[in-house]
């Protein structure tokens, strides 16, 4: 990587930190859990021999 790209990425990482104020970890976690449970139900429902 070029030094310019490294310094730009470092600046972006320090400024924001990757956390968006509107994202709730609980909402994201329970949404993912719900989606996985629905997929599990679908797989077990259609996997009848």
Number of helices: 2
β-strand number: 0
Work out the radius of gyration: 20 Å
Distance between the termini: 53 Å
Structural shape: elongated
Query: What can be said about the biggest beta sheet?
Result: none
Based on secondary structure, the structural category is: mainly alpha
Overall mean pLDDT stands at 82
Low-confidence parts lasting 5 or more residues at pLDDT below 50? none
How much of the polypeptide forms β-strand, as a percent range?
Answer: under 5%
Q: What is the H/E order? A: HH
| Helix residue percentage | over 70%
Keywords: Membrane, Transmembrane, Transmembrane helix
Transmembrane segments: 23-43
Explain what this protein looks like in three dimensions.
There is one protein chain. With 49 residues, this protein is an all-alpha fold. It has helices spanning 3-16, 25-46. It is elongated and about 60 Å long. The chain crosses the membrane at residues 23-43. Keywords: Membrane, Transmembrane, Transmembrane helix.
Topology:
Layout: H1 3-16, H2 25-46
Keywords: Membrane, Transmembrane, Transmembrane helix
Transmembrane segments: 23-43
Please outline what is shown here.
The N and C termini lie far apart (53 Å). This protein has two helices and no strands.
Features:
transmembrane; membrane; transmembrane helix; single chain
């Amino acid at each position: 990587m070029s030094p310019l790209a490294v310094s730009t990425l470092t600046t972006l990482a320090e400024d924001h930190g990757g956390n968006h104020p509107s994202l709730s970890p609980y909402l994201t976690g329970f949404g993912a859990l719900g989606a996985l449970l629905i997929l599990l139900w679908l797989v077990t429902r259609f996997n009848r021999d």
